[in-house]
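Q: How would the structure tokens look for this protein?
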Amino acid sequence: MNNFWMSKLRFINNYFETTKFYIVKKYFILLEVILVLSGCNLLAQQQTADSKGLKDYYKNYFPIGVAVSPWALKREDESSLIINQFNSITPENAMKMGPIHPRENEYNWKDADSIVAFAQRHHIKIRGHNLCWHNQAPAWLFIDSSGKPVSKEVLLQRLKEHITTVVNRYKGAIYAWDVVNEAISDKPGEYLRNSTWYQICGEEFIAKAFEYAHAADPSAQLFYNDYNEINADKREKIYRLVKSLKDAGVPIHGIGLQGHWAVNEPSAPQLDSTLRRFAALGLKLQITELDISVYPKEHVSRERKPVDSDTAFTAEKEQQQMQQYKMCFELFRKYKTVLSGVTFWNISDRNSWLDNFPVRGRKDHPLLFDKNLLPKKAFWEVVKF
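A: Here is the predicted structure in token form.
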């Protein structure tokens, strides 16, 4: 309780002491006690948030991670929150092919190295993200010196060189890698994405990427990572791919389910069936990029509409998000024997990729901490079990 109201109540108490209004005085004494106790409860709640992190609540379940940029780690408030709340981090962009290997004979290690160094200083696990992706893949990979498409043999050799170099640099520091990212097609009736990787190499590049990563660091856990995994059609395609790799003896250890969800999806049965289906493969599962948008889910980008100007985090949105996070973590705990990690995609509502997707410049509020880095109501539902 703040000093202003304490002083006002003391003044009123003193007044009634002198005027002998004992009954009224007792009422205000009782009111003061109630308000002080309420203030203590709020203070205790805030202290709990400050002293006990998500990682502590879930220490008997699975690591709780967060995607970070090197710039966030330089900001004291954000770095402190990371240290307090999380025991795993994923470089959001610093290890993707384009940023880390922009030209054939050039590697940019600075940002990735800074994230690894931060994690090691604070004894935080590191997930590598990612080694092969159709997006943010530098153009030089796919063309020769004359600008023509390279052969399958050349592209696989370039992939091997990239994966070997990156994985070797962080061998022993990174415990898990998203090896291949988003190779499944979103189109009905189409199995694999018609990416440049697929056009040149066919399906073989997927297995080869895992083989190259395993050879570079045999102790690392290797994941296939994808989104829209709750969609029944795409789920079965992912299942088919991972099962085929496992059956062929390819060194794959888990499936990364990105978890870019919203207040209206997934439903509890939808998420439960998804986790159960993938668990049947006998591999580890991880939620790798979790956020829950406060807007109804849209799967493709679009132009801004007048309604998009209403970005307030209303009580209704807060309640919907809180219930969705509660449901998700109830199911995560249910599958704790196969779920080996949950990672949030970004630190707080201060910055999120969803601020620019599906609508550029529309503020979202998808995480457990608000723009001031304070825990939201959803936080307390996630840790209440």
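The first strand starts at residue 64 and ends at 68.

Confidence is low (pLDDT under 50) at residues 1-49.

Upvote if useful.
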